[in-house]
Structures are given as structure tokens and as C-alpha cells.
């Protein structure tokens, strides 16, 4: 995407990051890890990255992904809403991020449903 000023607004997507965490309020959920599927979309001004072609000029989404893994994998959360908020906070801690959306699915959380998800957004 290019805006009218000639800036390059990049949209980055981290798709289907599958982690395991203790998520829920029932005893079985508290005592057993479950899959969580994380999707992140974010935008940042990639003008310098486009022209310099150097990693130092780009948003390092590998770093963001590692931070999410470290925070979520194997840890405990009562509510999907809280987990989604915490992951969104990690993404927004990066000053270059202008807008972000995080959606986290909890597969098979409800009978007859493929999954339940919570989606939160933030912007500067």
C-alpha cells in the first residue's frame, strides 16, 4: 500500500501461530494445556525498509513472534479476552506499529463449534 505522500504502509500478518496454554476457568482447563491459535495483523511505515533493503530499517516481526511465544506458551490465563489483550499489548509495545489486530481462537471450546475466538484492535 502506498499513501498519497509516497510512504509505504506495510501490512504484516502472522498467521496461525499454534501454541499451548492453560486457558479457562473449569478445573479441567486449569489443569490441562489446550491449543490456542493466534493471528496478528499489523501495519507500519515500511518506507525505509523498501528503499534501504536492510533489516535494521524494517519492523522485526520475528522478534514480535518470539515475544508472543515466550508470553503464551505454557502459561495460564483465565479468560480468552485477557490473553488477547496481553498479546495485543506485546505487539503495540513496538513503536513502529501503527495499527494492530489480534485474534485468538480456542479450538473446540464449545460443543458443536470448531472454535471460539476473541479479536481486539489498537492504533496510535
* Cα-based radius of gyration, to the nearest Å: 16 Å
Strand content: 35-45%
Tally of helical runs: 4
Q: Which second-level CATH architecture applies?
A: 2-Layer Sandwich
Enumerate the strands of the largest sheet in spatial order, edge to edge or round the barrel. Answer: 3-1-2-4-5
Q: What is the name of the CATH topology?
A: GTP Cyclohydrolase I, domain 2
- How many E strands? 5
Order of helices and strands: EHEHHEHEE
State the shape. Answer: elongated
Mean pLDDT: 92
Q: Which CATH C-level class is it?
A: Alpha Beta
Which segments are poorly predicted (pLDDT under 50) over 5 or more consecutive residues? Answer: none
User: Would you tell me the structural class of the helices and strands?
Assistant: alpha+beta
Sheet of most strands: 5 strands, mixed
Assign a percent range to the helix content.
Answer: 25-40%
Calculate the terminal CA-CA distance, rounded to whole Å: 18 Å
- Tally of discrete structural domains: 1
Please identify which CATH superfamily we are dealing with.
Answer: GTP cyclohydrolase I, C-terminal domain/NADPH-dependent 7-cyano-7-deazaguanine reductase, N-terminal domain
